């Protein structure tokens, strides 16, 4: 498990990460989201001790990164593109890493196979495509068979097949009980892959929740379209329950303030037939846009009214 508490980073007087608290539990994939410049990379670098926080702490399974006995065996990290001598092969590079971090050499072949580079193990890295570099970065992260993975934009540079492969790989790693924390701008992918998300807006936490719960909450606040042969009677019932109802023609209305289930129940209790009931379910991208509205504005920092609200 990763636990971040009160984590902040200031550059000069400018906070780029601002009193951040969140948890990435074991056995789950946590998507770490935010617009460009929101502070994701800075946070991930602080978790693995590459940037010194201005205040606050980050713990991996209860320990700060610098307290870990053999860090590569505890945490696999993919932050920046690994720097590899261009004449080295992926196998040679991984062998050097294995020796340096006390990882058994047989892991090199295993991870090359896991990331689909087994056939390229003898090719100099200078001849690698961007996607192959990304796979090599993942191989480096997986080398120590770590219980935690911290990955900054792991899908970057992967083709569609590569993205599907990565999705399956990360799902398998989480099923094995590992903690996976990953940043990504591919919100469709995150929705398909992540169990939960942590959303940053200009360095501050604006949401931390399981993906289905976040989407359910957002749906509950969306208008619901309803059709009924007795639309005026139904509108009266719904208004009595506190909803705002706009009747659009002789059969249809748009209802705000009640969920589709509440509308269906109210119609059943009143004995009014419902012919259509449609609640638009927002996707993660729509929820993200709402949570980070105005993120492109200059950093005039108004605190979010409440974490996780939409
Ligand atoms: N060394 C530094 N000195 C000053 N400002 C910095 C430094 N490093 C990062 N920043 C600023 O901190 C803010 C957060 O940057 P960070 O790279 O963490 O964002 P990000 O969410 O990872 O963005 P992206 O999605 O574009 O990768 C940005 O405004 C960036 O310009």
UniProtKB/TrEMBL annotation:
Gene3D superfamilies assigned to the protein according to its UniProt record, in alphabetical order: P-loop containing nucleotide triphosphate hydrolases
Keywords of the record: ATP-binding, Nucleotide-binding, Transport
Name of the protein in question: ABC-2 type transport system ATP-binding protein
ABC transporter domain mapped to chain residues: 2-227
Molecular function terms, GO-annotated: ATP binding; ATP hydrolysis activity
Presence of the UniProt keyword ATP-binding in the record: yes
Record keyword tRNA processing present: no
Organism: Actinacidiphila alni
């Amino acid at each position: 498990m990763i636990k971040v508490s009160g984590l902040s980073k200031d550059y000069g007087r400018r906070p780029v990460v601002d009193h951040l608290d969140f948890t990435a539990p074991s056995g789950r994939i946590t998507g770490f989201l935010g617009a460009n410049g929101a502070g994701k990379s800075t946070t991930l670098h602080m978790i693995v001790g590459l940037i010194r926080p201005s205040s606050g702490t980050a713990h991996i399974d209860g320990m700060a990164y610098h307290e870990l006995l053999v860090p590569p065996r505890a945490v696999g990290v993919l932050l920046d593109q690994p720097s590899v001598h261009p004449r080295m092969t992926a196998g040679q590079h991984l062998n050097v890493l294995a020796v340096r971090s006390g990882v058994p050499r047989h892991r090199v072949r295993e991870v090359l196979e896991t990331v689909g580079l087994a056939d390229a193990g003898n090719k100099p890295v200078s001849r690698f495509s961007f996607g192959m570099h990304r796979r090599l970065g993942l191989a480096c992260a997986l080398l120590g068979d770590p219980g935690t993975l911290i990955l900054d934009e792991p899908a970057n540079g992967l083709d569609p097949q590569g993205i599907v492969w990565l999705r399956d790989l990360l799902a398998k790693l989480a099923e094995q009980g590992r903690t996976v924390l990953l940043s990504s701008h591919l919100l469709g992918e995150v929705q398909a892959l992540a169990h939960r998300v942590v959303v940053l807006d200009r360095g501050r936490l604006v949401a931390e929740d399981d993906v289905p719960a976040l989407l359910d909450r957002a749906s509950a606040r969306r208008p619901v379209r309803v059709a009924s042969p007795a639309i005026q009677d139904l509108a009266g019932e719904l208004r009595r329950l506190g909803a705002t109802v706009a009747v659009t023609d002789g059969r249809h209305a748009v209802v705000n303030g009640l969920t589709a289930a509440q509308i269906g129940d109210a119609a059943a209790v009143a004995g009014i037939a419902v012919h259509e009931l449609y609640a638009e379910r927002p996707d993660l991208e729509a929820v993200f846009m709402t949570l980070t509205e105005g993120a492109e504005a200059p950093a005039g920092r108004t605190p979010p009214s409440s974490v996780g609200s939409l």
